[in-house]
Design brief:
Layout (H helix, E strand, L loop, with lengths): L1 H29 L4 H6 L12 H6 L7 H32 L5 H10 L5 H15 L6 H8 L4 H12 L4 H8 L4 H12 L1 H16 L3 H6 L8 H11 L5 H21 L1 H13 L2
Helix pairs in contact: 1-14, 4-7, 4-8, 4-11, 8-15, 9-10, 11-15, 13-14
Length: 277
Amino acid sequence: MKNLSKIGAYLVLIVFGFIMIYPLLWMAAASFRSNAEIYTSIGLIPKRVIWDGFVEGWKGSGQFTFGTFYANSFLLVVPTVIGTVVSSVLVAYGFTRFQFPLKKVLLAVMIATLMLPHAVLIIPRYLLFRNFGWLDSYLPFVVPAFLGGYPFFIFMMVQFIRGLPSELDESAKIDGCNSFTILTRILMPLCKPALFSVSIIQFIWLWNEFFNTLIYVNSVSKFTLQLALRMSIDATYDIQWNQIMAMSLLTMLPCMIIFFLAQKHFVEGISTTGLKG
């Protein structure tokens, strides 16, 4: 009976897993179909395979290929992720290991910013970045990342570093380490799971970002993949959906590859930041 119940549980999980992944499989199959078959079929096997979806889709709008949009996405995402990790660690280290005036008030204010609706911040941010002359660039994403502009990740790091024993710091001070050395040589190696979590979540969020890039980036030459996909749909009345599906599939690949390569550290970081503190 125990083996039967286990087999039944596995079968249920397989069925639900297939249901969850079916849209992704259908999108991959649609990359090799004609428009007529995409509109009329929900199966996974194309009746007539069309091979030019990836080749023609990669050409983009003609003036810029999807290679340009891929490079733009990395130019936006990679510096922003690096800035987020660096600033989150530094700010969290200050909140957890140092005593200074209004520490609790500043921490409460930082956490309170998480409660602000995004719609409230759109206009003030736009006016601020416009006055700085940062519009039509990636600076509205990169600069706030290096200045601690993502409190969610700071809070994650605060929760993790709080769980690390302060005796480590005291032992390092006895050995002659200063505060920066304690952070870089003692605490950061122990924070690796949390750092992976911050990096992966921020990478996926920014890679899939559409609304903010639509507001701040105006030049087609600086469009990210998400804006390029939307432009491809708007470009012509006769939309070749197999090309859209093919480019959508390629757009998803970096997030999927990074997640599966760092899945172990990601799950560990999420669990420990939730339990420690």
